[in-house]
Design brief:
- This protein is an all-alpha fold.
- It contains 4 helices and no strands.
- α3 runs antiparallel to α4.
């Protein structure tokens, strides 16, 4: 950090967010994403019964949950370089939240 005093926001300009708040939000988002990835692992033995599918088909479902972020990470990184990191981070967080809400509101009956 520099020793320069922080200037108050001028009229009509938006003040930049504090670095500690940004780091806290990014750390929380990273923990949430890693938790969501690990939630699938305890279900692996039960997936064929839950999905009414063969074990090989359910293995593909697990592979998809690992492959999607592996592909999305460099793509979103490149888009962040092109269109702005903040914009792509916000889009990623909105998509994560929307997916979580859809899953939370989904019908849980499977038979």
């Amino acid at each position: 950090m520099s020793d320069a005093p922080i200037q108050p926001a001028q009229e009509g300009k938006v003040a930049a967010p504090r670095a500690s708040a940004v780091v806290a939000v990014l750390a929380f988002a990273g923990i949430v994403v890693s938790l969501m990835q690990t939630l699938v692992i305890p279900l692996v033995p039960q997936l064929p019964d839950l999905l009414n599918a063969s074990p090989s088909d359910t293995a593909r479902a697990v592979t998809a949950t690992l492959l999607a972020p592996a592909v999305a990470t460099p793509v979103i990184g490149r888009l962040g370089d092109m269109y702005g990191k903040r914009r792509m981070l916000l889009i990623s967080l909105v998509l994560l939240t929307a997916g979580s809400v859809v899953c939370a509101l989904a019908d849980s009956s499977y038979r």
